[in-house]
Amino acid sequence: FRLDVQLIVYFFLWYAGNYYHNITGKIAFNMSGGAMGFPVTIATMQMGIGCLYALFMWGAPDARKFPNIRFRDIITMLPVAFCNAGVHGFSSFATSAGAISFGQMIKASEPAFAAVIGTTVYGKGVSTARWMCLIPIIGGVSLASVTELNFAWLAFWAAGIANIFAAFKGQENAKLMASGEIRDRLETVGNQFALTTLASFLFMLPVMVIKEGSKWPQFYSMLTTNPVWATNFVLSGLLLYGYNECATITIKKTSAITQSVANTAKRAVVIVGSALVFGESLGFAKLMGCSIALGGVLLYSVIDTLLHKAAERGKAQRFKRTIEILDMEQDAVGSALSSMVEVVGAAAEDCVRDENGLCEVSDEESVEE
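Above: the chain sequence. Below: its structure as tokens.
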């Protein structure tokens, strides 16, 4: 058994980064007025901080080599970047409008959106087992929602729209990575995420200007006069980029089941941790609903793999049994042949031979025949 220290470090950075991104981001949203402040500006500038970090990594000596991409590669990546912008923008708005635990709980229903969109838009089949797993997901989210003391319709709809963007992003990213040429030219996961972040920022920028352009002076004032707010805002942007890159690297180094378990556990950590920090409601029904939903998400993620492995084990056992039966039959045939040889040999020894060395047949034996 060999302990992968590097993988453990990436897991820790992924979990810690995601948790503290949510905490620092929520503090920044609350201090600036929540959904009534300038959440789109904060979300866009968080993405902008990630862009600055990506550019720094390309510019710093021996840090990261710029990918040898072509213009058509960038065009091909735009759908993923657009969906990524939608996921971050609406997730951030959900965080600004309601409790973190509530938003995370609604986002736990993402597999339901992925199944419907994958089937209806992309023609991707979903197994019956996965469809059945949507029952506890939807039921758990519904149970937790109806008992949520901090229920906010804005957060509910924003998180739901973020799920739609996430479902499209997953499908578009799969199409993008199916092209071996683009994957080879990007060279590293870090380059792929950096380019996606840059394009996502450009998609969010005009939306920010149109919706909250008049609030830019407020944003600038908070940034320059309120060090507590500025610190949380900058940290939330750096952590957003950092934890996503660590998550991408971790996913590349682990199996599908490990990823599913880790992602489900991470969401549980954020839900419970943020509720404790901000004093959000955690009643029995809400915890029960969250547990049922997260369990359904985990099962949805691994059910096909588990069933496939079970089927493979069944085939292997049937094949092994067939070989055993054939071996038994072969042994039986071998034993029968040996017995026949012995009988023939004994008869040959007892017979009376003629001058040519052949056994003579008596008159009685001839009559019997």
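The mean pLDDT is 82.
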